[in-house]
Design goal:
Layout (H helix, E strand, L loop, with lengths): L1 H34 L3 H14 L4 H16 L6 H17 L4 H14 L5 H21 L4 H15 L3 H11 L8 H14 L4 H13 L3 H13 L7 H15 L2
Helix pairs in contact: 1-2, 1-3, 2-3, 3-4, 3-5, 4-5, 5-6, 6-7, 7-9, 7-10, 9-10, 10-11, 11-12
């Protein structure tokens, strides 16, 4: 009778342990689907986890990341994806102000939303993005996503003409950041040194070299894009654009 009770207790403890493990596994299972490009399944799993733990920092920023990636898939450029992403990212910042990911994906959502805004709102969004991205890098200097997005913002401001910059300052009474191609290159190179597999880093660096008229360097980076694995759904579109750019500059 004692032996039976002992084994019953073991079974009960094992059952409780498995139940607790399954709760913790929502993140890793969701990640598995995310990196398998099964975004619908990933969202389903992340949201199940969030139903159990609505104030889980990791689940909130990962849903923000997923929503940003949904919106960046060609044909899916819908404002509501980025609005929702911003909400989850901002919630994750409130839950954990010392985590870099919330700031990173808040910036990504804000940047995408800027495409739907007027010029004044675009300028305000860019400054807010810079704030978010600098905070992310302050918290985690190895946040390669934040570094890559920051490089894109730097390139955008570096590409503004004197007239565009002056008009923006006069019309909107706001300071327009100078931007620097050299600084953008530095950010992209650091992002690549942390994770060279993500084709976005190489693609954006190649575009920067194009604007700098460093065509040989641009070609080298575009060629690296084609050698990168497809990690995100939007990577396929970057591969198509890369082939077009290589044809333009000559293989």
């Amino acid at each position: 009778m004692r032996i039976s009770f002992f084994f019953l207790l073991l079974i009960l403890c094992s059952s409780i342990s498995r139940s607790q493990s399954s709760e913790i596994d929502y993140q890793s299972l969701g990640d598995k689907y995310f990196f398998s490009l099964e975004y619908d399944k990933a969202m389903e799993i992340y949201k199940k986890g969030l139903n159990n733990k609505p104030n889980d920092y990791e689940l909130n920023w990962k849903i923000a990341r997923l929503l940003v990636n949904y919106g960046e898939v060609p044909g899916n450029e819908k404002k509501n994806y980025f609005n929702e992403a911003k909400k989850y990212a901002e919630k994750s910042i409130n839950l954990n102000p010392k985590g870099s990911e919330g700031y990173t994906f808040s910036a990504a959502a804000i940047g995408n939303l800027a495409f739907y805004a007027g010029n004044k709102e675009k300028l305000q969004a860019s400054n807010l993005m810079l704030n978010r991205l600098n905070k992310a890098i302050e918290l985690n200097p190895d946040d390669h996503i934040a570094l890559s997005i920051l490089g894109s913002v730097e390139r955008m401001f570096a590409g503004l003409s004197w007239l565009e910059r002056t008009l923006a300052g006069v019309i909107y009474s706001a300071d327009v950041p100078n931007g620097s191609y050299e600084t953008a290159v530095k950010y992209f190179k650091k992002a690549i040194s942390i994770d060279s597999r993500l084709n976005r880093h190489h693609y954006e660096l190649a575009l920067t070299y194009l604007e700098m008229e460093k065509f040989d360097l641009a070609k080298l980076e575009f060629e690296k894009v084609l050698r990168c694995p497809v990690i995100l759904k939007a990577d396929s579109r970057r591969i198509e654009l890369t082939k077009e750019k290589l044809n333009q500059i000559g293989k």
